[in-house]
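Ticket #4471: structure export looks truncated?
Reporter: QA, pipeline team
Priority: medium

Steps to reproduce: submit the single chain below to the structure queue and open the exported record.
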Amino acid sequence: MTTRYVGASEIGQMTNHERNRTPDGFSAIDETRTHLNKILHGPATQHLALKKLWDSGVRRPTAQAERPYVQTVISASPNFFRDESQGVGEWNEARLKKWIEVTMAWLRKEYGPDLAHVALHLDEDTPHLHILIVPTYERRPRRPGKPAKNETLPEFDARIFAAQTGKTTRTVSRSSNKYWSKISVRRDARKSYHAAVEHLGIGYGRDFVAAGQPSPQNKTTAKWVREEAARVAEDRAHFSSDRAALDAEIVEADEYRLKHRGEAEKIKAHQQRKSSMLAREKLALEQMRTKIERDRDTIQSAMRALQGVIDAVGTTLDVRWPDGMTAMVDKIELLITSLPDQTRSVSEPQGDGDSDPRM
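Actual output as written to the record:
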């Protein structure tokens, strides 16, 4: 059982739904079964049901009235209507008939003359009823508040008496109707209907609120506004606290990033200085090696010349030089020859322990 408050536009939409029984993507309409639909109470459509009321003298709702009409859809579980061998669009005829009989009796008793329209739809998946209820009340003439200008007291009392005893006018107003002005009316209606059909094996269904929780309808507007304002204020306080914590984390992250960026720049500058120093040292060693090689060539040339002189003098004078002198000359020449190999290892510097392992 689903109940909603509606205005004239929703009445027009339901009238179109009742007249145009074609698949629309929202309702699973089977046009081959549309001829089975029936009007169980009132005119053919909800629009015509209102027109009948206006024609009978019922006074329309005021222009300020918000959703003065009530639309209800009543059905039951598909398993209630179907036998085990039946599927979508099928039902047990006897069970359907009994359900309609009990439901219509409840509707007439519950809403009386305010029950304006009931349509049975059998061309969708499960049998269901579309119901229009028009809440009304007997409106009395307005009671005079004060005497008119030059009106005597007896004349004023006569007007008051006429207002109190005058003919009432049936007028549409949900807020002035004793039944529909109750806060919990929709839940009360569900309970009342369930009591009427429970013997058929139909359960209560859901109220769409948690167990043990009050119905959303059981709150005045002022109370709801106060509660929502308090909830919004609490959410805003939590948000402000979370925002402050987030801002603090951002500041801390920025400080950490700047600190470590500064350390990284220092390490990079140190490495650059170290690379420059090593490059300068390598250049100096290369220059030294070149000079040593040049000096070695000069000395070797001098030694060869000296050896020639020694050999020439010995031959001329027929003098044999001591073996020690020749060995000494050979040793000097060997030492000079080995100089480039020693300087080569010096000219290729290796990294020392000063390099930063983090780079």
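Status: closed, not a bug. The export was complete when the record was re-opened. Leaving a note from the reviewer for reference: The chain has eight helices and seven strands.
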